[in-house]
Structures are given as C-alpha cells and as structure tokens.
C-alpha cells in the first residue's frame, strides 16, 4: 500500500465521537477520587523495632546453631560422596538452579507477606 492510498482510506472514515454521558461520568469519577481521603501510610516507626528484634533473634539463632554444631562436625570425619566426573557438572548446575528457585520462592513469600 502506498501513503496516498492509506491517507485516502483514513480520510474517508468518520470522526469518533464519545457517547452522550461519557464526559459527565468521567468528570464525576474524577471528583469522587479527588474527594476521597488519602490512603493510610504504613506505620514504619512501629514496625522497625519488630524488624530489628527479628533480625537479632535470627542472628542469635545462627550463632547458637554454629556453636552447637561446630564441635560435633569437627568430631565426625565425614567424607563427601564419590561422584563420577561425568555427573559432577550437571549436579553443580542443578544445585545452582535449586538455589535460584529457593531464593525466588523466599523473595515471593516475603513480598506477599509485606504486601499483606
């Protein structure tokens, strides 16, 4: 198609006109939105101490877990399982995929929890 033909086709179309009550309904909805009270802000000042305490408890739990398991792991001589060279590379890739899936799941769950 050439530009002249396209211009001729578009030039013969009738003008679009909104329905009779469209403008009035849109303006009414805008006035309602403008009159609505603002949303309630999230109370960060109240939530921040809870986040700090939760982080502290998680950190303390990790330290205690390392203190408890560290000597037990040193006493036990565990050797890693024998994996053939042909299987080692796919297993490493599967580990990275599993780690990415876990990180994605955790971030999804945290965002759902924060969003309510």
Question: What structural keywords apply?
Answer:
116 residues; mainly alpha
| Portion in beta strands | under 5%
Q: What is the rounded distance between the termini?
A: 54 Å
N to C succession of SSEs: HHHH
Describe the global form: elongated
Radius of gyration: 31 Å
Q: Can you give the mean pLDDT? A: 85
Quick one: how many beta strands? 0
Bin the helical content: over 70%
Largest sheet features: none
Query: Which segments are poorly predicted (pLDDT under 50) over 5 or more consecutive residues?
Result: none
Number of helices: 4
Structural class: mainly alpha
Describe the structure.
The model has no long low-confidence stretch (mean pLDDT 85). This protein has helices spanning 3-12, 22-35, 44-75, 85-115. The chain has four helices and no strands. The chain has a domain at 87-116. The relative contact order is 0.03. With 116 residues, it is an all-alpha fold.
């Amino acid at each position: 198609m050439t530009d002249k033909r396209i211009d001729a086709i578009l030039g013969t179309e009738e003008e679009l006109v909104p329905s009779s009550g469209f403008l009035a309904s849109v303006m009414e909805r805008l006035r309602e939105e403008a009159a609505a009270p603002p949303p309630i802000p999230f109370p960060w000042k109240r939530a921040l101490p809870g986040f700090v305490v939760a982080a502290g408890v998680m950190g303390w739990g990790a330290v205690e877990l390392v203190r408890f398991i560290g000597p037990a792991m040193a006493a036990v001589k565990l050797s890693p399982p024998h994996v053939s060279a042909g299987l080692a590379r796919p297993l490493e890739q599967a580990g990275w995929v599993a780690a990415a899936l876990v990180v994605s799941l955790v971030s999804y769950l945290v965002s759902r929890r924060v969003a309510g």
